[in-house]
Design goal:
alpha/beta, six-stranded mixed sheet, TIM Barrel, globular, eight-stranded mixed barrel, about 25% strand, 9 helices
Length: about 400
Amino acid sequence: MAAAAALAPSVASADTPASPVTQHVTHRGYDVTVPASWRVVDLVERPAACLIFDTPTVYLGPAGTQQDCPAHAGPGTYGLWIRSQGSTRAPVGARILDRGAAVSVRPDAGGERHVVVRDAGVLVSSFGGVRAAEVLRSAHLTAEARRAPAPSHAERASGSAQQAVARVKVPGRFTGRGFDACTAPGGNVMSAWRKSSNFRSVGVYIGGVSRACAQPRLTADWVRKRVAGGWHPLPIWVGLQAPCERDRFGHTMSNDPGTARAQGRQAAGAAADRAQNLAIGKRSVLYYDIEGYNNANTTCRRAVLNFLSGWTNQLHRRDYRSGVYSSISSGISDLSDTFNNDRFTPPNHIWAAWWNGERNVDFKPYVPDGKWSGRQRVHQYRGGHNETHGGRTLNIDSNYMRVN
């Protein structure tokens, strides 16, 4: 009996069908093959779901008006968002596919791909590099697909029109409180918070390969309206992370100082392009999010400092100013230590994550008062938590700043 019992699991497993490796996901007749491990979220059934890619996911349908998102998500992975062509305006640079469904599309500088599939009337966005690109190439149409009407002349011209819109300079002159959130809140939420709180600045992730949350509401119009409504936006680019943090992040910079510096320049060029598309004008400050890293690792530290120098130098060439967000004890401390080192170029602004609860821009002992003293500091003094103002709840990080 003992021998038979020992064999039983083997016999049972032989009769058990193997788990599927892939699954088909279909929306409006647009069908893609994705790994079986990917989540599938119907946004019509779950309108409060956050469009977040911290785990591989396919989202179907339009984004809800108030997503339940964290303030600061983990590193982005990969996934897809499929919705009707008319539910949102296609991002600048989207590929318009007049026939068929399968397509190879080069990612934009933030690692995203956007495709309008006219034969199914859908807009498809992919996030996260090679795996998501493979999914786009697997696409085909089912009998349910219905061709969307041809876009109007105005819609076809929307990309160039967005390039020509009036731009705003951010963050502007401001001293006081702000918040940052994983995804840009809707206009009604921002209005409620403007009336019912003393927050006047909002940090918003405009792109980068490590961005976890999609930005369904972030447009040039959103930026202009926030500035007109008295807000001071802080644009954030979250791209390659420190090379010694590969266990935490899927996208890291090179260990080689020269290569890292070139990668920083590339990130800055991409961020400047995205900023222009979002009506963020010249002389605005664009902040690079470099998460905390082991700065006792000298190779890693050197790579980060070279990357951030490349970021700053290229932004200056594009007539933008540079900012860096990082942990007070790693990135910000390292920037302070090399402030007068001719091999590196310091950013114009620093944004220190130091959750000490103090609403000030006093960064001693990490940064002396004489550095970045001319309205060049932002302090993230509290991490993710819920706050409700005007009946609207957001999960935010809290900041205090003195900027111009």
